[in-house]
Design a protein that fits this description.
By secondary structure, this protein is mainly alpha-helical. It has 7 helices and 3 strands. It has a 3-stranded antiparallel beta sheet with strand order 1-3-2. A hairpin with a 2-residue loop joins strand 2 and strand 3. Helix 3 crosses helix 4.
Length: 196
Amino acid sequence: MKGRRHGWPGSGPDFLFGWGGGQQNPPWAQPGFPFGPPPPKAKRGDVRAAILVLLTEGPRNGYQIIQDVVERTEGSWKPSPGAVYPALQQLSDEGLIRGDEADGRKTYELTDAGREHVAQHPPEAPWNDRPKADTTGWPGGEATAVFGEMAQLGKALIQVVQAGSPAQVAEARRVLGDTRRRLYGILATDIHEEDA
């Protein structure tokens, strides 16, 4: 498809960033790109423990449980519906929770047996041992904000390359070169300050 000003083939920024070959997402959408570890994975039993901890505080539906986990882990863990709803069903089958349907949503709460179980076997809140924002720089905190800005920069750059004149593309290249040098300058400044 050659509908672009510069006639690059393909439907995405393959030509610009060198990804493609059937890959569905650009590299910046992959865990851990461009550096740093991927977000920590949930340990076995984390979803179950999270549900029990949250339901001791009050009734919730599945969506609220997911959102509360995201909030308490500062975005470092978002359990999928495919993990949460089966865990809710299992806890219900065990008689520890019950679900009540209202307004098309099922809200879950602890049963008497569930409260007794939690009292005898207090679940450990899984967000207590997960990295919070700015602890490791990834994910959460300023690092996440930087990658958000990088994604926006990538979109703007693609638009300039696709629709800009050769002079505009050359100017974008100069801006990127200046930005790269300034970023390395930030590291150099920090190194000198630490050595002082």
